[in-house]
Amino acid sequence: MIVSRKQIVLVGAPVDDGAGQKGCLMGPDAIRTAGLLEQLEALGHVVADHGNLTPSKAFEVASPNPVLKNFRSYAGWTRALHAKSWELGLQSVLPIYLGGDHAMAAGTVSGQARAAAELDRPLFVLWLDAHSDFHTLDSTDSGNLHGTPLAFACGLPGFDELLGAPLEHTVCPGNVEILGVRSIDAAEREMLLSHGVGVSDMRRVDEDGIASSLKPFLDRVRAANGLLHVSLDVDFLDPEIAPAVGTTVPGGATFREAHLVMEMLHDSGLVTSLDLVELNPFLDDRGKTARLMVDLTGSLFGRRVFDRPTRSF
């Protein structure tokens, strides 16, 4: 088996203020303990662990909506992660951001988008999640900010306080594909439709299969010479196999569906950055979910049961 050798950088983002249930701050170290670095090195990759980030200071930030929880912390994490992902996005490395709740993606995706713009290439985003995370700061009822990062990255209004200025390099909503979603609020549904975001919900997966749901998106990324950021939320998976998440929604991706997505992503050669988010070790069963996330990452980076050579007929 031939595996393309990659320079991989691990960045911990112990973000714990965007979700309603505490515990995700332990996620980065749980993923490390489950053997991520060792698995990637065993597959032939060179891995550097940059440790865990800390949030930037955002003392001047005031919440634009009283319902929002921990908005100043959200701004601090977004600024720190934006700067780090912008820096890494300009280098010949593949960063893996270890979360932390999904609020962290406001920084990782926006930073990767800034780097992509400077490289004169479009950024595409594959959002593997039970939720669309497309609320604005005004539309959210819960005030939990892990439901807003994709709307921010796509340039929806009202987020200027996060970086202290309007987001200059946004992700085109048409370059986003949300796969495996099965819980969308009414306000999000309207915004997703009006902005042209790609959505392959679990009904589509059930009807067409997960490979048929993913392949057209990968073909578009390739045709555009795009960079691809993948954001993998634990709740993309069915909670029967991945219980360590505070936002469980029944009916998620099966073990084999999830691995097939990762295997297809590996075969495409298109992935340039990755989030692993919403792992809450406090809710796990003896490390079951952490090990699954590491196994899935292994499939993304070339681990397979049997190499299938191309044959001509």
What is the strand and helix layout of this fold?
Elements: E1 7-13, H1 27-33, H2 36-42, E2 46-52, H3 71-89, E3 94-99, H4 105-118, E4 123-128, H5 149-153, H6 160-163, E5 176-181, H7 186-195, E6 198-201, H8 202-208, H9 210-223, E7 227-233, H10 255-268, E8 271-277, H11 288-300
Parallel strand pairs: 1-2, 1-3, 3-8, 4-5, 4-7, 5-6, 7-8
Counting DSSP H or I runs of 4 or more residues, the number of helices is 11
Name of the CATH class:
Alpha Beta
CATH superfamily, by name, is Ureohydrolase domain
Structural class: alpha/beta
What spatial order of strands do you see in the largest sheet? 2-1-3-8-7-4-5-6
Domains, number: 1
> How far apart are the termini?
22 Å
CATH architecture: 3-Layer(aba) Sandwich
Major sheet: size, sense and barrel closure?
Answer: 8 strands, parallel
**Beta-strand fraction estimate:** 15-25%
Number of strands: 8
Estimated radius of gyration: 18 Å
**Mean model confidence by pLDDT:** 95
Helix content percent band = 25-40%
CATH topology: Arginase, Chain A
Unreliable stretches covering 5 or more consecutive residues: none
| Overall 3D shape | globular
Order of helices and strands: EHHEHEHEHHEHEHHEHEH
Protein name: Arginase
GO molecular function: arginase activity; manganese ion binding
Binding site for Mn(2+): 102, 129, 131, 133, 233, 235
Pathway: Nitrogen metabolism; urea cycle; L-ornithine and urea from L-arginine: step 1/1
